[in-house]
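Protein modeling request. Please complete all fields; requests missing the sequence field cannot be processed.
Requester role: graduate student
Desired output: 3D structure, token encoding
Chains: 1
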Amino acid sequence: MKTVPRQIASLFARHAALSGFSVRGRDDVPDSCRRSGGDDELFVGDVGISPALSAAQYAEIFDEVLEALSDVLCEEPAAAQSLRGRTFARVLH
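Delivered output (93 residues):
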């Protein structure tokens, strides 16, 4: 997966405040983070939002990031490997 999945590109189109986020694998998160068990787990981290938003607005964007990743994985289960370790960021022109 070399291109940005349409579900993720759509996040940046819908949320002007979203600067970027990273997708991490099981070994990339601190031991203090709760895990549910599988080796294929993905975690969202380093969510950049600017300007600062309310906690509710942040939660809404975070939930949409999770939903977009879930949609990508539902359409292409093998995408987990190519998503892990990637950072998605807004492109400024």
